[in-house]
Design a protein that fits this description.
The protein is α+β, with helices and mostly antiparallel strands. The protein has a domain of 44 residues. It has two helices and two strands, in the order H-E-E-H. The protein has a two-stranded antiparallel sheet. A hairpin with a 6-residue loop joins strand 1 and strand 2.
């Protein structure tokens, strides 16, 4: 009797994380914020496009963190330059 194998799904794109698919495309990693497995290509890029941002953050966590970020208040000691 064989047990059913339930494939893990990417937390961003929803596609399967199979070894055949991801072996030549960078594999998969775990997001440090949501702890879900995601494709390497679904992580946020760093300064160089093929290098990924550290700590590893998926695109969905990055978009929610930037969307909910509040605008920093202005520095009260800053001087305004008039031209």
């Amino acid at each position: 009797m064989t047990l059913a194998i339930i494939p893990e799904l990417c937390g961003v794109c929803g596609e399967g994380l199979s070894r055949n698919f991801t072996l030549l495309r960078g594999g998969w990693e775990r997001c440090t914020l949501c702890e879900r497995f995601v494709h390497h290509s679904c992580l946020v890029s760093g300064k160089v496009s093929f290098l990924k941002k550290r700590p590893r953050v998926c695109q969905s966590c990055q978009s929610t963190s930037t969307g909910s970020a509040s605008v920093a208040p202005l520095d009260p000691h800053a001087t305004v330059l008039k031209s």
